[in-house]
């Protein structure tokens, strides 16, 4: 299966055509790529990767000054994200940033400030604006008012849950001959959120460079409750400027499973491939904590933005526990 690539140029004039392409992609692949959006520009995206690297280049102890707070989904983590699909931790470090927590849990390091926070905040606002343009399409398809999702994703309120995540996957040592067969940059998972915008990096927009690749998606998931993992994976080449969009579990539920939240993963390059660090940036749109979530067909019981995320975390945790038990038995 190929991943649809959708041209967003002249968005207002081409709205109806773009809408058809996006809805088709959301109902089938669950993933698509967009390009030629007004904003963020290629230059802004490329600058964001430099700001991201500036942060990750800080000494570990400085990064750890911004602790990861699970329930707030904010802060810095280092080799700590355990995936139910693999029972191993992702080979990465990442920081999650929310606009309304700028004075609470953002890096204040002198090497970054003053412009780091200003640039990151401006980027968040651009991601938000682009996301709301896309979510209008989903709202209309579900016969909700056009601004339905915009009103429910207010990132200026204290109840906001949307998050920018800067990710850095470490380059593996050539000399390291430990078994990597079950190690992943990001183990297979679906996203909990409504809609994810994922920015990948390449040094040139025309050439795809194998060293930055690794993202793979698995289309064809039927329902978010099964945790079923298919085995046909499609490669999504890294290309600066192509924004990868995926539907998350929250929108799948909100659409009574019409839009598909699909599994994806990031693999470690094989020994015969170029070895290099990988950086990516994700913007996760999540409804405010107090928003009521239920699809037009009422397929699932009504829940709130807060409970939806907490339940997803609990489900993940219990899946890890039951898989660990199973492995112990088989040992
Ligand atoms: O880095 C990537 O390409 C994917 C990241 C991802 O899927 C996630 O953080 O949810
Ligand atoms: Fe993801």
Automatic annotation (TrEMBL):
<keyword id="KW-0408">Iron</keyword>
<dbReference type="Pfam" id="PF14226">
    <property type="entry name" value="DIOX_N"/>
</dbReference>
<dbReference type="InterPro" id="IPR044861">
    <property type="entry name" value="IPNS-like_FE2OG_OXY"/>
</dbReference>
<dbReference type="GO" id="GO:0044283">
    <property type="term" value="P:small molecule biosynthetic process"/>
</dbReference>
<dbReference type="InterPro" id="IPR027443">
    <property type="entry name" value="IPNS-like_sf"/>
</dbReference>
<keyword id="KW-0479">Metal-binding</keyword>
<dbReference type="GO" id="GO:0046872">
    <property type="term" value="F:metal ion binding"/>
</dbReference>
<protein>
    <recommendedName>
        <fullName>Fe2OG dioxygenase domain-containing protein</fullName>
    </recommendedName>
</protein>
<feature type="domain" description="Fe2OG dioxygenase">
    <location>
        <begin position="159"/>
        <end position="287"/>
    </location>
</feature>
<dbReference type="InterPro" id="IPR005123">
    <property type="entry name" value="Oxoglu/Fe-dep_dioxygenase_dom"/>
</dbReference>
<dbReference type="Pfam" id="PF03171">
    <property type="entry name" value="2OG-FeII_Oxy"/>
</dbReference>
<dbReference type="GO" id="GO:0016491">
    <property type="term" value="F:oxidoreductase activity"/>
</dbReference>
<dbReference type="InterPro" id="IPR026992">
    <property type="entry name" value="DIOX_N"/>
</dbReference>
<keyword id="KW-0560">Oxidoreductase</keyword>
<dbReference type="InterPro" id="IPR050231">
    <property type="entry name" value="Iron_ascorbate_oxido_reductase"/>
</dbReference>
<comment type="similarity">
    <text>Belongs to the iron/ascorbate-dependent oxidoreductase family.</text>
</comment>
């Amino acid at each position: 299966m190929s991943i649809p690539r959708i041209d967003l140029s002249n968005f207002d004039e081409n709205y109806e055509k773009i809408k058809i392409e996006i809805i088709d992609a959301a109902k089938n692949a669950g993933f698509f790529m967009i390009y030629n959006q007004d904003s963020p520009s290629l230059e802004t995206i490329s600058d964001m990767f430099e700001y991201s690297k500036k942060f990750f280049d800080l000494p570990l102890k400085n990064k750890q000054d911004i602790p990861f707070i699970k329930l707030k989904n904010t802060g810095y983590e280092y080799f700590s994200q355990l995936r139910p699909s693999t029972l191993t931790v992702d080979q990465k470090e990442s920081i999650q940033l929310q606009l309304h927590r700028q004075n609470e849990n953002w890096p204040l390091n002198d090497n970054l400030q003053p412009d780091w926070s200003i640039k990151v905040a401006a980027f968040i606002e651009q991601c938000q604006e682009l996301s709301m343009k896309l979510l209008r399409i989903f709202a209309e398809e579900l016969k909700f008012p056009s601004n339905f999702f915009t009103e429910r994703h207010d990132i200026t309120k204290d109840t906001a849950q949307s998050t920018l995540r800067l990710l850095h996957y470490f380059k593996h040592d050539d000399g390291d001959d430990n078994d990597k067969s079950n190690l992943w940059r990001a183990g297979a998972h679906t996203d909990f959120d409504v809609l994810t915008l994922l920015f990948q990096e390449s040094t040139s927009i025309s050439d795809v460079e194998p060293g930055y690749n690794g993202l793979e998606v698995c289309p064809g998931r039927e329902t978010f409750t099964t945790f079923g993992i298919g085995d046909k994976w499609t490669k999504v080449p890294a290309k600066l400027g192509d924004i990868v969009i995926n539907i998350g579990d929250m929108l799948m539920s909100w659409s009574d499973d019409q839009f598909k939240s699909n599994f994806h993963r990031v693999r470690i390059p094989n020994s015969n491939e170029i070895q290099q660090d990988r950086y990516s940036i994700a913007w996760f749109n999540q409804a405010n904590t107090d928003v009521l979530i239920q699809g037009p067909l009422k397929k699932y019981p009504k829940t709130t933005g807060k409970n939806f995320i907490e339940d997803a975390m609990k489900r993940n945790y219990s899946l890890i526990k039951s898989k660990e038990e199973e492995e112990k038995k088989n040992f």
